[in-house]
Design a protein that fits this description.
The protein has 198 residues and is of the alpha+beta class. It has one domain: Helix Hairpins, CATH 1.10.287. Strands 1-2 form a two-stranded antiparallel ribbon. β1 and β2 form a beta hairpin. α1 packs antiparallel against α3. The longest helix has 82 residues. The radius of gyration is 34 Å and the shape is rod-shaped.
């Protein structure tokens, strides 16, 4: 009975190992896709951010600091971020959607006070915000997936190198004992048969 139980456990462990291995392979594939998207988004965002900062620096050189502070202290849009989660291979990753309600005036300052470079930089930063949020979303998903891949790999290794070999060894030991008991009873029967015939 113990042998039967161990065989069932071994069969379950082997099936679980195969499923975890397949899950791990799929997670690594998805991780690679997200990593490529992360790299592409990061390059885009860094390029756009550098251009916007360059515009801000140029605007700062042409405008007095107190005028800039006054002009840029008012928001151009009201933003609302809706944070939810989506599942990638059982891992909950963030999904952020952005909704914007525009302020009636396109830019909250007088055009006579601020240069056109400042206008351009404000528009560039406004256009950059959705990309920044998408980048944050992808980077968090990459981090969470990497943790889950590591955990899954430990489980696969524990099954492959510890549990399955131990079960196989125990099954072999029980089989050997059963075979030995069977041979002993055959020898006993042969002795009983030989002594009965003489």
């Amino acid at each position: 009975m113990e042998l039967k139980k161990l065989k069932a456990r071994l069969s379950t462990a082997e099936r679980g190992h195969k499923l975890l291995k397949d899950k791990s392979d799929e997670m690594v594939r998805r991780f690679t896709v997200l990593l490529k998207e992360d790299k592409r988004l990061r390059d885009e965002v860094e390029g756009d951010l550098a251009a916007a900062l360059k515009q801000f620096a140029l605007a700062g050189a042409l405008t007095a600091p107190y005028v800039q502070e006054t002009a840029f202290s008012m928001p151009t849009v009201n933003l609302q971020a809706d944070c939810q989660t989506e599942s990638i291979m059982g891992v909950d990753v963030p999904k952020i959607s952005l909704s914007a309600a525009e302020v009636p005036v396109a830019l909250p300052y007088a055009f006579s006070e601020i240069t056109s470079e400042a206008d351009g930089s404000v528009r560039m930063v406004s256009a950059l915000l959705p990309k920044l949020l998408r980048l944050a979303e992808v980077e968090k998903a990459v981090r969470l997936l990497s943790y889950e891949i590591e955990r899954n790999k430990r489980r696969v290794n524990a099954l492959e190198y510890i549990m399955i070999p131990q079960l196989e060894e125990t099954i072999k030991y029980i089989r050997d004992k059963l075979d030995e008991n069977e041979r002993a009873s055959i020898v006993r029967l042969m002795k009983v048969g030989a002594s009965a015939s003489s």
